[in-house]
Amino acid sequence: MAINILCSGDFHGEIPAKMAEIIDRDEIDAALLTGDYMPFFEADYWKTDELMKFLGKLQIPIYMVHGNTDFLALESLSIWERKHKNLHFIDWKRIILGNHWLVGVGIGEDWLYLGEKDIRVVERLVQIDPKRTILLSHYPPFGVVDFTLSDTHAGDGYLRRLIERYQPPLVICGHIHEAKGIDKIGDTLVVNPYNDPIIIDLERMEIDG
């Protein structure tokens, strides 16, 4: 049985109308969002409420992690989660999704990168059943889908080493907008959809972008 997930993120207050169109058109079982719901500028913070209202009206479960621009709005985002039964923040949690486990990797100790304490939490969750674990992370791993406009790799080294060790089948990430794309670390598929939705069949690990 196919489990189709829609992956997106880095909305920064913008309404992802294309996401709603895909959900209405296709058989989507859940959405996985990689964080950064807040706009860049304080004058636009009101857009976050409109975004959360929009997501709360979608008729599928939505699993989310926070991004680095969300750290000033953690409480207000949690209020929206309580208002809408389909919205679920899963930072540092492990939940079941079809025949897989979904592990959420939230914002790190300094809001930009993961620290040793952060990665130990993730490792405890992943090592239980790594071959059936999907990582939903705001940060990309170092060296893939993380190349910036300043010609540097800006991914997370701790996350890279964890993936190399445990080889989960799929990592969904964001953060580096210009690095949108698909790559691999060994047998692990790494997807950075930015805010352009990508559909993945979890049972076949097939991508329909």
UniProtKB/TrEMBL annotation:
UniProt cross-references to Pfam families, sorted A to Z: Metallophos
Protein's organism: Candidatus Methanolliviera hydrocarbonicum
Name of protein: Calcineurin-like phosphoesterase domain-containing protein
SUPFAM superfamilies in alphabetical order: Metallo-dependent phosphatases (SSF56300)
InterPro entries the record matches: Calcineurin-like_PHP (IPR004843), Metallo-depent_PP-like (IPR029052), UPF0046_metallophosphoest (IPR051693)
Every Calcineurin-like phosphoesterase domain range: 4-178
GO MF, any single term: hydrolase activity
